[in-house]
Structure formats: C-alpha cells, structure tokens
Fold:
Amino acid sequence: MTFFLFAAAFVGGALNAVAGGGSFIGLPALIFAGVPAASANATNTLALWPASISSAWAYRRELSAARGWVSSLGVVSLAGGVLGGLLLVGTSDAAFLRLLPWLLLVAAATFSFGSTLQRVFTQQPARATEHPAGAARRLPVLFCQFLIAIYGGYFGGGMGIMMLATFAIAGMTEIHEMNALKTLLGVAINGLALITFVVKGAIAWGPGLVMIAGAIVGGYFGATIARKTDPKWVRLLVTVIAWTMTTYFFIR
Structure:
C-alpha cells in the first residue's frame, strides 16, 4: 500500500507540474487505501502543498508586477482558507462522501472548460495588473476570491482555474503574472487550511508523508517531461481521469 500511495502521489505531482489535476489521483488513492474520506481530503492537501511553495518561489519576479492585488486578495484568501478548513473538519466522513461526487463534478467541469472561460474574459482591453481596479470592480473580485478560498480550504479541485477566471474578470491579462498570483494565493489558502487540519487532528500522517515524497519526486520529473510533451495531450489525460473518477463516485 505504501508503494501504491507513493506511485499515486508521483503521478499527481507530475500532472500538477504539467497541466494540473493531481488531486484527481491523490484523493481517490487515499480513499481506496482506507483513509476516511474527510481525512483523505486533508491529507491530499498536505501531500501536494510543498510543491506549490517551490512554484510560488519560482514566480517571485512576476509577483512584483501584481503587488497591487497581493495584500487585498491575500487577506480574503487567508480568511476563506481558514473557514474552508474548519468546514471540512466539521464534516463527517459520511457527509463528505455524499458531497464528494458533486465536488469532483465542479472540479472536473472547471478543469475541462475553465480555459475556454478564461479566454473569453481575457478578450478585453489590456489593463496593468500592478494597479488594483476601482472599488466598483474590486469588491466583487474580492468577494469571489473569498468564496473560492472557502472552496479551496474545503476541497480545492479546480481552484486555480477559478482564480484565473476571476483575475481575468478583474482586468488582468498577463498570464504569467496571473499564474504567479494564483500560485501564491493557493499556498496561502491551503497553508491556513493545513494548520486547521493539523490542529484538529485531521491528517493521516503515515500516508501523508509517503505522498509528500512521491509528489515532490513526481513534480520534478513532471517538469522535465513538460518540456518534451504537448500539454494538450496531458490535459486530455487529466480530463479523462477527472470524469472517470467523478462518474465512479456518483455510482458508488
């Protein structure tokens, strides 16, 4: 079972490095391994979080251009991440299993169609990302980010694409700066949720540590593979996995 979890995390980490969607592998693997559903979700967050820190560090140069949004979006993201984490630890395993197919459906749909939505919103006059929008546009963006952060702290699948779409609505158009901001906020959301999970004893540490190692190794090799592979084929693979897992948990 240790090898199974390591392999699942390896594949999940590699997918995240290339196209995202690693949670569609890691979370079901933990449930199949016998980890209770809510704990499996918390443990999967732990497994994939270290790799996101290194990604945020790699984007530090692009973050400077989006600094006008960092503080305000960061505050609502931290608050939402804590709230989402508290909601998860307050959810029974039976209730989470009932919710899981719907959460996977949201994540699968977001992964499958989020890029199209993002392209629609980015077809607008360019605006500088370093200066936040006026209050009329800024407040709805902050509210949307707060809701996304709650979702991210609770589950998180597809959260990154949701954030990119929100940034596009805010008028951001430089994809590298948007990715940098998305990555940093993802670290904050999942980091605060993780603290909640640890304090509440929701982490399955044995499987979690195995999966951290697998995700780190997989992320490294995934980045190497990404340079040689057409991302559209990887995204197609993740899409098939996402809808397969969603269908399985609905039938289950």
